[in-house]
Amino acid sequence: MAYFDCFYQSEKLNRKNAFRVVIPEDVSVRIAPVVYLLHGLDGTYLSWFDNTDLEGAARRSGCIVVLPDAGNSFYTGAYLEMIVSELVPYVEKTFNLSGPRHIAGVSMGGHGAYKIAFLNRNLFETAGSFSGVLDLNAPINDAIDKRARSCMEAVFGENFNLKGTNEDLFHLVYKAKPMKMYQFCGKEDFLYNVNLSFKRHANIAKMDVDYFEAEGDHTWPTWARQIDHYLNWVKERQLWYSRKSN
Question: In which domain, by residue range, is 203 found?
Fold first, then answer.
């Protein structure tokens, strides 16, 4: 197993930015699936690596994983452009990757992964969310939610209303081309009902959603128990991709 921490000058952000690439041994960088895994609020590009057995899960599944850093940006504006038009081509050129791309994220990153995939349908084979903040206009009723609200106000301004915009996943899901989606949420998560509501809308919009739930709340132990399941799910999509290419 090898992993690389990279620091590069981002033109989109006008500053240096970081990411980590995790490459299992004995995988072909030309065909192995590449998963862009996004962190949540107050996280960094190391959050997934530090809080889960990501290294082991990548090895067991044969997936290459890219961990971007995006601050508390909600993956909007320059941060969205950084991933789509800067990071993806930079990573592929630097590490000679050419396998199918997948994108997923946790909490704020779940919102970002779906949004990026919906707006760039030809860039990613699938999109995944772990306890995603899938409705930025949902009522505030939890201490964690209030923290998220303050960060959203820093990004979108006070008294923001994102309905009908590219930040509104309930709007975007009806405009996006159909795609394969992974969705997980813990039953004790304060975002559980929001996730159920989004799943219903995604099904109505003819998205192919594999939905999963289990005991757990909005914490890393809950998500750590799912990372093997998700990367194995990606591996199954790789088998489909290989058949499609032949």
Answer: 2-245
Quote the CA–CA distance of 216 and 146 in Å, as a whole number.
Answer: 20
Instruction: Convert the pLDDT of each residue in 191-214 to its tens digit.
Output: 999 999 999 999 999 999 999 999
At 242 the pLDDT is 47
Which CATH number goes with the domain that contains 14?
3.40.50.1820
Burial class (CB in 10 A: 0-12, 13-18, 19+), 136: buried
Query: What are the backbone angles phi and psi of residue 48, rounded to the nearest 5°?
Result: -65, -40
Q: Which residues contact 73 (CB under 8 A, 6 or more apart)?
A: 79, 155
Strand arrangement of the beta sheet that strand 64-68 belongs to: 2-10, 15-23, 64-68, 34-38, 101-106, 126-130, 180-186, 208-214
Tell me if the pTM is above 0.90. Answer: yes
CA-nearest of 85, 86, 131 to 107 is 131
How many Å apart are CA 189 and CA 219, to the nearest integer? 9
- Quick one: tokens of 221? 């132990």
Q: pLDDT of 168-179, one tens digit each?
A: 999 999 999 999
Domain count, the chain: 1
What parts of the chain have a pLDDT lower than 70? 140-144, 238-246
Instruction: Please report the pLDDT score of residue 239 as a whole number.
Output: 57
